[in-house]
Amino acid sequence: MIVSIASGKGGTGKTSVAVNMALSIRNVQLLDCDVEEPNAHLLLHPKISRIEPVYVPIPLINEELCDHCGKCSKFCQYNAIFVSSEKVLIFPELCHSCGGCAVVCPKKAITEDKHKIGILKLAYTGDLRVVYGELEVGEPMAVPLIKEVKRQIDKSRNVILDSPPGTSCPVIETVKDSDFCILVTEPTPFGLHDLKIAVQVLEDMKISLGVVVNRAGIGDRKVYEYCKEKDIPILLEIPYNRRIAELYSKGIPFSLEMPEWSERFQILFNDARRLVGK
Amino acid sequence: MKQITVLSGKGGTGKTTLTAAFAVLAKKAVVADCDVDAPDLHMLLHPEIIQTQEFKGSKLAFIDEAKCVKCGLCREKCRFSAITEDFRVDPFSCEGCSVCTIICPANAITLTERISGHAYISKTRFGFMAHAMLTPSEANSGKLVTLVRQNSKILAEKESVDLIIIDGPPGIGCPVIASVTGVDAGLVVAEPTMSGIHDLKRALQLLAHFDVPSFVCVNTYDINKDNTEKIESFCKENGIEVVGKIPFSPKVTEAMVNGKTIIEYSPRSAVAKEIEDIWEKLSALVSEKSFT
Prior knowledge:
The complex is a heterodimer. Chain A contains eleven helices and eleven strands. Chain A is an alpha/beta fold. In chain B, β6 and β7 (127-134) form a beta hairpin.
């Protein structure tokens, strides 16, 4: 089963839930898809077994063949190519690697070069397999690296995907094809507002979901009212607790120090499994 | 005109709480909420929308079933695996590149524009605000951020306001890049956790990459004072000024529940006082920059 852990709002505790759940069940592969700010490894300290650079194809212009007709530039939906009468400029950060420029070029002057956008790391701690990506600073596009992280999915394991925050393309790419999504929220107006947006995304994508309320006890009751109204199951509540916050700040998964939580995360995973019927 | 972006790398460190407080303290500033996929600033500033713009940020391929000869060429050439087995376009995968439209021998595919969100120009009790809402699950948040920033500049010019305060999204990817390019300062809000430190460093690298002068403040610094010290010494080593340390306080959440900025809700609290100091330092540093 593939379970993704997401949230509209940042900092609600996605990584904490993903890591504690991964440590509480067996045969797990945890993929940290927040390639902009990967954090799961900071709590798990896994041993790295492999590091690979990740490239995306970008156009390479053969200036000898190019007659500066400008068709590639006109075609490119992302303004990644600029053609003047003297030269052609490529903006790799804008390129989506669709390959269309090479198709439209009448002189066959375009081939493909590779552009590094980040690195992929494969790691493990005990029996737990960890995969994560690190986007190069200054590179805008996280999606191709997330795809690369997800290419490592081992379906023979219980797969947990830790998503980036938000509701746009990097989140879609992460949660796509998951059997179940756990949305982590906090019981505050910001938490609720962003939860609603995330629920809408998952409903559009037809992915079944449940909610984990983190920092329960702060804020108000509106998240609970909303979930009840929408018939969304609240699978777990994690209270606001100074000890949990301090453990997190030190980079220690709290279920290791507070073993009663290990069982609760097992139940969380089993509930998710039950809800998708796997 | 000066522009300051509040960012963080890691989500949930207090960007919006700070931006809203700055909007009050600045007295005369345009605020721009550039977290377009999960905007929250409006819940503290309660903008009254004056103008709404449709945002057509991306395109989507459409296959005319009547014309399609099911040759499969589009599926073969699509790099985004956006064409399904039964020759439909998966809107969650299509990036609107238009390769399929030129490759199709039957001319069965066209690109359609999709409305991927709305941008708003609004008035708040503290001045003007530019914000937006990306349609959930849409792409191209970076372009929408650029539109919000353009709107904020137009507003500032029209209203003769010389300061724009930008609430940035989390992360370091395209919407964040769109929120920091060309600004006069970036204030990174860090939290004293292992993840917070890691993400702070990446956010600072991003600002350096785009030559944006950076400042740091630590939020809920007393949750882990050792980590706060680590942040301070890291910043010192790298010549980055830490403009303040905000203590943890349940008042921040209370203010949020009441739909108010912390400055209005609890003006005498330690949090409000510290944010006032931060604003004083930051605004002085940013205006000084014009003389250097």
